[in-house]
From TrEMBL, chain A:
Transmembrane segments: none
Names of the cofactor(s): FAD
Cited Pfam families: ETF, ETF_alpha
Identification of the protein by name: Electron transfer flavoprotein subunit alpha
Taxonomic lineage: Bacteria, Bacillati, Actinomycetota, Actinomycetes, Micrococcales
Electron transfer flavoprotein alpha/beta-subunit N-terminal domain residues: 9-193
InterPro entries xrefs: DHS-like_NAD/FAD-binding_dom (IPR029035), ETF_a/b_N (IPR014730), ETF_a/FixB (IPR001308), ETF_asu_C (IPR014731), Rossmann-like_a/b/a_fold (IPR014729)
UniProt keywords, alphabetically: FAD, Flavoprotein
Family, as annotated: Belongs to the ETF alpha-subunit/FixB family.
GO biological process, one term: fatty acid beta-oxidation using acyl-CoA dehydrogenase
Automatic annotation (TrEMBL), chain B:
Name of the protein in its database record: Electron transfer flavoprotein subunit beta
InterPro entries associated with the record: ETF_a/b_N, ETF_b, ETF_beta_N, Rossmann-like_a/b/a_fold
The keyword Electron transport belongs to this UniProt entry's keyword annotation: yes
GO MF annotation terms: electron transfer activity
Organism in which the protein naturally occurs: Cellulomonas carbonis T26
Keywords linked to the UniProt accession: Electron transport, Transport
UniProt entry tagged with the keyword Electron transport: yes
Length: 324, 262
């Protein structure tokens, strides 16, 4: 068997407004443990800052696939990646775990005969070179270890699974690939509206997430205030998004966003299994709820039976005081 | 319009869900149910069929008990159902599953072409969300996934979807595969009439041979990934529960500082 350290690991780069999205740096870091890392950038040519970020995290080569039609549809993007994978003979492809990338990954694995893993929480290789992943299952109550038995692996990795670390700085070589094709699928995009950015970190990438549920009664003020004191993101339960108290994109749970921050704070969150599925793998779980019977207390490291409208502002004020 | 809805039988969310020693979802506990997210798919299929005078066929694959999933779809109003049942299916990965579901759709197209395949956004046991895409790939059809809104007009299916950073509207000509989210509709609850009617509705059982699928292409031997260990997460240790006596916020801040979380 060839030396796994020489195997090519292709990392698909998510970027926005010319900047590399943070979880990609985590992928590059994870990729270095699997082999030789090269990045794939689809879109307008990457700028100096982006190349610098990719280089500092270990990408020796950046394959630039020109695409002027905006964000590629997953089947078109899969076509691009499949071509690169075949040409370069890459046995491993890593992507971030967004909805679009899971679809892209599925198409790519189907086309290239690769084994497919989505939502990996850890990735490494066995002694004999197989790609091995760690995963959470059943609302975070089980931990799985799985191996890819196919010779090629396509893996989407959850944000925050691996801390991003820089390697010896290199200036990546940019190789311009053939432009992205269009029309590989009869699927057509009629409209795409990017969600406006927020001053807060994004939910999937945040190290701290403060979540409001039914118990907020629609007032997210205390939740946002504590999130800001902690430099965290704001999330919500299904009830809160269904009530229209906050946008649907903030919904944490099995059918919404899955988060695994270092710190999760649930305020007025009961902890139904649907919600737990999206947060149970968090590092430290704090819960504030006026109902002592709320199921979230069963999984909380630190539970407070109390009124969130007094507990949260007090905690936020104290955190700001301690920080000076 | 001829519609196929793919459904899965999964362990009840509220039950004590487990993995077997082989690392497979334990389906022997007898507390399986129609995957909740597939109810949205059945509802979407029924609404379209009602509007166009079409039919809905529910398709599932899985062990004997999996029939409960299509039974539930029949109770909701599906016209008939298919259960792909074969010992060789055990341990199938997403690719094997998609191969079989696609073969069932092809077989159902023998008498009249299937216009639309509808699925839920994910199965609540595996949560991969990739089977709709793979079924579409197997069938050579476009996939409009994660529809929070679904409409069909003039032979084109249109879907509005909420992605991680954007909202999109995509459309595809029929025949096509779509998946719908739990935002797409409010699934109907089967009424007494529906439950009685479902008893008389046919569930066709097909084996892999009936579908012309090579058993070597599915099941555990063909799976491209293998679970090597499955472990229940240990309970969290040193948990603290306090009642607020007026200073819980301050104490929380101290806890966070102490644990270097601030």
């Amino acid at each position: 068997m060839s030396d796994p350290a020489q195997d090519l690991v292709l990392v698909h780069v998510d970027h926005h407004a010319g900047a590399v999205r943070t979880p990609v740096l985590e992928l590059l870091t994870a990729g270095r443990a699997l082999g030789r890392v090269e990045a794939v950038w689809i879109g307008d040519a990457p700028g100096a800052d982006a190349l610098d970020a990719l280089g500092r995290h270990g990408a020796a080569v950046v394959h630039h696939v020109p695409a002027d039609q905006g964000e590629l549809l997953p089947p078109d993007a899969a076509h691009v990646l499949a071509r690169l994978v075949e040409e370069a003979g890459a046995p491993v492809v890593l992507l971030t775990s967004t909805f679009e990338n899971k679809e892209l990954a599925a198409r790519l694995a189907w086309t290239t005969g690769a084994g497919l893993v989505v939502d990996a929480a850890a990735v490494d290789r066995t002694a004999d070179g197989r790609v091995r992943v760690g995963q959470q299952a059943f609302a975070g109550t089980w931990t799985l270890e799985a191996e890819v038995s196919a010779p090629r692996a396509v893996v989407t990795v959850k944000a925050n699974a691996v801390p991003a670390e820089e390697s010896a700085a290199t200036t990546p070589e940019v190789r311009v690939a053939a432009p992205a094709p269009t029309g590989t699928t009869p699927l057509r995009r009629v409209e795409r509206v990017e969600r406006p950015g927020s001053d807060r970190p994004s939910l999937t990438e945040a190290q701290v997430v403060v979540v409001g549920g039914r118990g907020t009664n629609g007032d997210f003020g205390p939740v946002e205030d504590l999130a800001d004191a902690l430099g965290g993101a704001v999330g919500a339960t299904r009830v809160a998004t269904d009530e229209g108290w906050i946008g649907h994109e903030a919904q944490i749970g099995q059918t919404g966003v899955t988060v695994s921050p270092r710190l999760y704070v649930g305020a007025g969150v009961s902890g139904a299994v649907h919600h737990r599925g999206g947060m149970q793998a968090s590092g430290t779980i704090v819960a504030v709820n006026s109902d002592p019977e709320a199921p979230i207390f069963e999984i909380a490291d630190y539970g407070i039976v109390g009124d969130l409208t007094t507990v949260l502002p007090q905690a936020a004020a104290e955190i700001r005081r301690l920080r000076g | 319009m001829k519609i196929v809805v793919c459904v899965k039988h999964v362990p009840d969310l509220q039950s004590d869900r487990r993995f077997t020693e082989e690392g497979r979802v334990d389906r022997s506990q007898g507390d399986g149910t129609l995957n909740e997210l597939d109810e949205n798919a059945v509802e979407a299929a029924l609404v379209l069929a009602e509007a166009t005078g079409g039919t809905v066929t529910a398709v599932t694959m899985g062990p004997q008990d999996a029939e409960d999933a299509v039974r539930r779809a029949l109770q909701m109003g599906a016209d008939d159902a298919v259960h792909v049942l074969d010992d060789a299916l055990a341990g199938s990965d997403a690719f094997g599953t998609a191969r079989v579901l696609a073969a069932a759709v092809r077989r159902l197209s023998d008498d009249a072409p299937v216009d639309l395949v509808v699925t839920g956004m994910a199965a609540l046991d595996g949560l991969m969300s990739v089977v709709p895409t793979l079924v579409a790939a197997e069938l050579g059809l476009p996939a409009a996934t994660l529809g929070a809104e679904l409409t069909v007009a003039d032979g084109v299916v249109r879907v509005r979807r909420e992605l991680d950073t954007a909202t999109e509207v995509v459309e595809a000509p029929l025949p096509a595969v779509v998946s719908v989210t739990d935002q797409a509709n409010q699934p109907r609850y089967p009424n007494f009439k529906g439950i009685m009617a479902a008893r008389k509705k046919p569930v066709t059982v097909w084996s892999l041979a009936d579908l012309g699928v090579d058993p070597g292409d599915v099941g555990e031997p063909a799976a491209r990934t293998r679970v090597v260990s499955a472990t229940p997460r240990p309970p969290r240790e040193n948990r603290v529960l306090v009642a607020d006596d007026g200073d819980a916020g301050t104490r929380l801040a101290a806890f966070l500082v102490e644990n270097r979380l601030v």
